[in-house]
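Handout, page 2. Input:
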Amino acid sequence: MSLPIFQQICLACRYDTPGVPAAEPRAFSKWFSGTDDEVRKDKVDFYSETFYGKLPIRPYFIGFYKWLESLFFWLRAAYKARPELKDQSELFLPSQLQNSLRATSYDWDTLGGIFTYANMKQLMSSFQDQPLETRWSGEDSGH
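Output:
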């Protein structure tokens, strides 16, 4: 799920219009030309509190700002809420922590329940205060 969000943010921040790159230096340039360590550090900063600025959305895409800012916030929240992926089998963990870790079931498909059909539909319905037109009427249409 996070890849399409990254793509949307990158397109809106790195292109003046569809197919026309903005002048260098473009936003997030190190993601495309940096070393592995630079890319990792920049993306960790992007997800964490160290990325304080507004998204540098280009003027052509400014109508999508509310969407992209919301998606960025959701992505950061999902990143922070994800469980530790480290193998804990050889660690000494108090029983309370073991029980807590067992009880935690993180939904990777929706990044912790954040990127659901209902949430995306509600967000998409907010574009320039226009109602979202869909081809189906049910919440659970299987799409």
